[in-house]
Amino acid sequence: MTIRLLRFGLILGVAIAPSCGWMGDTAERPTPPPAAEAPPESPTNPEEPAPEPTPEPSAPEPTPITPFTPGDRDIVIDGVDCQNAQTQSAMNRCAEETFKVADEDLNRLYQQVLNQLPQSDRPALVEAQEAWLTYRDDNCDFEASLFEGGSIQPLTYYSCLERMTDERIEVLQQ
Q: What is the pTM of this model?
């Protein structure tokens, strides 16, 4: 029985690895061929200098997005360093506070990204963000429900919220 499970796990790992980029993802990807350049126009009269090309108007440079480092939060609550919380109660409080900081980071980044988008693209981001928030909250409600009534339920809930919020921060930074 153990050997069957081991074989199954090995086969499953080999089958899944290529699709998730775990194996064979280090090879160089082909680069697109360079765009063909048009030959420079030669002036009709060799004694006349070639006209200066007029620069095309360009959009103003967007303000760079403030980088956030998800998961790098040093929080102290009531003298307890959240990196070294020892009791379940302290871990629960720290998880909640850490999530609140992550949520503030996400909201700041979201506003920066939203403000850089053309007006016509903003409703799509607003709709996507609202859908993502619903998904995040529902997913974390489910994860925490597995520990319904247990002292670890708040830790599970807020840790899930922080993890998913950090993932969203990474997506919006791209």
A: 0.60
pLDDT one-digit tens code per residue, 58-95 = 444 555 555 556 556 677 777 778 888 899 999 999 99
Diameter of the chain measured on Cα atoms: 89
Q: Which two tokens stand for residue 117?
A: 């988008």
- What domains can be seen in the chain, in order of their start residue? 74-174 (1.20.1270.180)
Sign of CA dihedral 145, 132, 130, 167: positive
Is the CB of residue 164 less than 8 Å from the CB of residue 129?
no
Instruction: Give one DSSP letter per residue of 30-64, joined into a string.
Output: PPPPPPPPPPPPPPSSTTSPPPPPPPPP-PPPPPP
How many angstroms separate the CA atoms of 48 and 144, rounded?
78
